[in-house]
Fold this protein.
Amino acid sequence: MMDAGKKDPKIIAVTTGDPEFNGYHEASELPPHRLLVLRRFFQDYKQLEHKAVAVDEIMPAESAYPIVEDALLAG
């Protein structure tokens, strides 16, 4: 997503112990309504902070790996 003009990636993850979601491996496998709810959540919580936000398309899981690796190295 774009937050105040800057890239601000978000990672969608599920616990492997949650039987409701543990069968999913890609966000694209989720029901369309669930994806709309996730998108709306990211839009709304930033708007409550009076920030301009744009939620991009949800990317495949493999695109999250470099973001997670960078975060681990930075931490």
Observations:
- Helices lie at 32-47, 65-74.
- The beta strands are 2-3, 6-7, 53-54.
- The chain has a mean pLDDT of 88.
- The CA atoms of residues 25 and 37 lie 18 Å apart.
